[in-house]
Specification:
Elements: H1 3-6, H2 21-31, E1 47-55, E2 58-69, E3 75-85, E4 88-101, E5 104-116, E6 121-128, E7 133-136, E8 141-144, H3 156-167, E9 173-179, E10 185-200, E11 203-214, E12 219-226, E13 232-240, E14 243-255, E15 257-259, E16 262-264
Antiparallel strand pairs: 1-2, 1-14, 2-3, 3-4, 4-5, 5-6, 6-7, 7-8, 9-10, 10-11, 11-12, 12-13, 13-14, 15-16
Length: about 260
């Protein structure tokens, strides 16, 4: 398979969020209308998870997923990957600023960046759930959307899925309404696919496996979550038309505890 196609679907990752004053002010106003998300620190503590990215069993990059609670009551949820293989080199990064109320994630600000081999891409969105509005900052467009069905951005639904598993992992199907970078909304469906004990760079982990299939694109994604790590994503595997695209395996996991002297890991 050509290099371009074999790595096209590597996991999305994001740039560190740098808010403009106007965007920061907007987020601050929205956060004040929500219950303080910091109460969820005991359910999902601040963390940094590191992954090894593989292509056909060969290490080709790294990924980092992290979560931190902000002083304004919001949560910074971040994912970033770097991949280098032969002549291919690419960094992807995404950040979702969000809140949690009654176990429901509400996205506020989403930012995505892809740089390296191929065309660079950048997206940024602001969400106003109380007004059923989503703003495409790059294209300067506003969309009327329905937040009544727990609408998520392309990263925040990962956290919603983890919360749902913590609350009730017995369901066989989980459905998430997700707005993409073009403004269209699709349902992401995760189906229970069994339990499995994995040997990862992190160590031996018992997991529950879910499957997401996009039939029109012939793409299947398998995701493994570890109950003993509060259902953290520990492995991801994706195929397209029967060909392996990528695999990510947990290599390190650190809980970040804040003190007056900073963060203790």
């Amino acid at each position: 398979m050509p290099i371009k196609h074999s790595l096209l679907f590597l996991p999305a990752l994001l740039l560190i969020l740098i808010s403009t004053t106007s965007i920061a002010d907007t987020i601050e106003k929205v956060v004040t209308t929500h219950q303080d998300s910091n109460q969820y620190k005991n359910i999902i503590p601040e963390f940094t998870a590191e992954y090894t990215v593989l292509h056909k069993a060969d290490p080709v990059g790294t990924a980092v997923r992290s979560l931190s609670y902000q002083t304004d009551g919001s949560i910074d949820y971040h994912y970033k990957t770097y991949v280098e293989w032969l002549i291919f080199s690419q960094t992807r990064s995404e950040t979702s600023i969000l809140t949690i109320t009654d176990n429901q994630v509400t996205p506020l600000h989403y930012k995505y960046s892809r740089e390296g081999t191929g065309k660079d891409k950048h997206y940024e969105w602001l969400f106003h759930a109380s007004e059923n509005k989503a703003e495409d900052i790059q294209r300067k467009r506003a969309h009327t959307v329905d937040f009544s069905n727990n609408l998520q951005d392309k990263l925040s639904y990962h956290l919603q899925h983890r919360l749902n598993l913590i609350a009730d992992a017995t369901q066989k199907t989980y459905t998430y309404s997700v707005i993409n970078t073009a403004g269209s909304i699709k349902d992401y469906i995760y189906e229970y696919d069994g339990e499995e004990e994995l040997i990862l760079p992190y160590g031996l982990v018992k997991t529950v496996r879910f499957k997401r299939e996009i039939k029109d694109k012939e793409r299947i994604t398998y995701a493994w979550f570890a109950p003993e790590l509060d259902y953290l994503l520990v492995k991801l595997y994706q195929t397209k038309a029967g060909n392996e695209q990528f695999e990510a395996q947990l290599s390190g996991y650190t809980l970040n505890v804040k003190t007056d002297k900073g963060i203790v890991k």
